[in-house]
Design goal:
- It is a single chain.
- The longest helix is centred in the middle third of the chain and has 9 residues.
- The chain has two domains: about 230 residues, Sandwich (Jelly Rolls); about 70 residues, Jelly Rolls (Sandwich), CATH 2.60.120.10.
- The protein is built from seven helices and 22 strands.
- A hairpin with a 2-residue loop joins strand 4 and strand 5.
- Strands 1, 6, 17, 18, 19, 20, 21 and 22 form an eight-stranded antiparallel beta sheet that branches. The chain has a seven-stranded antiparallel beta sheet with strand order 2-3-7-14-9-12-16. A three-stranded antiparallel beta sheet has the order 11-10-13.
- The chain starts with a helix and ends with a strand.
- Bound molecules: zinc ion (ZN).
Length: about 325
């Protein structure tokens, strides 16, 4: 690796998103965010991902045409000291036109033992848009594993499932073992561990192509935390502008919000930093970055000067 390549390595990297058609998806990822082509129900945009189910390809610059998983393996200098195992994070934009199934994710230990060594899934949501009376499913009302199993077996879903109101700009952490569901009408940015393991507990008895989608009752009962922790919904809409606010620091990631109204500057001193512009437009070190664009700022990127009117979510690993 020569000096010139090192210097090129400090450029911001952008990826072509991977789009996922889903039964519950809508048309807003195309219509409002410009991802992909119209005419299909797209539920998920995998914006920054090295997962084998959707490995994003670099769009331009020195690394054009290579996937994020390749960069992670072949260009460790881009990721500081963080490059071991698999690229750890996955950033998605989700458009739920209809309710998602009620589900739960395993932790690392359960996934490693039962899902071919996969990572578990801790995730968090930043609500991009929703109706006035929107709600999320977070948690359940069973006090013991026995009560949980009985309620599931007897289909007492209304009694079991907890719903919480959410508003645009709210932020929620979803730990493994938390029963959860995104309800119709909600758009959100998800930052999560790079994992695709979901256990479906209940699908509202819906049919997909004439058949119910498979449920994973045994695995769900194995991994659901009992009793459930209270949902931790943070309001962020009123946080002051032009300051970086840490929304969560957990074992797997840190996530920050910046409401930009004018200018802001900082040093990129993380192993790598993911930058998602979720509203408005800005210039980052002179480069225009619009709503729906996601950049990876590699290790050693240095000073970041941002100007404009925009809402930006940043994420990185927790070293
Ligand atoms: Zn989930």
């Amino acid at each position: 690796m020569n000096q010139e390549n090192h210097a090129r390595g400090a450029e911001a990297i952008s990826f072509a998103p991977v789009l996922k058609e889903t039964v519950w998806g809508g048309e807003r990822l195309y219509g409002e965010y410009g991802y992909g082509v119209p005419g299909r129900k797209v539920g998920e945009c995998w914006a920054v991902s090295a997962h084998p189910n959707g490995d994003c390809v670099v769009r331009e610059g020195a690394y054009r045409g290579r996937t994020l998983s390749q960069l992670w393996r072949e260009e460790p200098q881009l990721f500081g000291g963080a490059a071991k195992g698999e690229f750890p994070l996955l950033v998605k934009v989700i458009d739920a036109a209809d309710d998602l199934s009620i589900q739960v994710h395993p932790d690392d230990a359960y996934a490693a033992a039962n899902e071919n060594g996969s990572l578990g899934k801790t995730e968090c949501w930043y609500i991009l848009d929703c109706a006035q009376d929107a709600r999320l499913v977070i948690g359940h009302n069973a006090d013991t594993k026995k009560e949980l199993a009985d309620m599931v077996e007897q289909g007492r879903w209304k009694e079991l499932i907890r719903e919480v109101p959410v508003h645009k700009g709210d932020f929620v952490q979803i730990n493994p073992g938390t029963v959860h569901a995104i309800k119709g009408g909600i758009m959100l940015l998800e930052t999560q561990q790079s994992s695709d393991v979901t256990y479906r507990l209940y699908d509202y008895d819906r049919l997909s192509d004439g058949r119910p989608r498979p449920l994973h009752i045994r695995q769900s009962l194995d991994v659901i935390t009992v009793p459930a922790a209270p949902a931790d919904v943070k309001e962020t809409a009123s946080l002051p502008a032009n300051e970086l606010h840490l929304l969560i620091a957990c074992r797997y990631y840190r996530v920050w919000k910046l409401a930009l109204a004018g200018s802001f500057s900082m040093e990129q001193d993380c192993p790598f930093l993911l930058m998602s512009v979720v509203a408005g437009t800005c210039r980052m070190n002179g480069r225009p970055v619009g709503k729906g664009e996601h950049l990876l700022l590699p290790a050693g990127y240095g000073s970041v000067e941002i100007e404009g009117e925009a809402e930006i979510i940043f994420s990185s690993v927790n070293e």
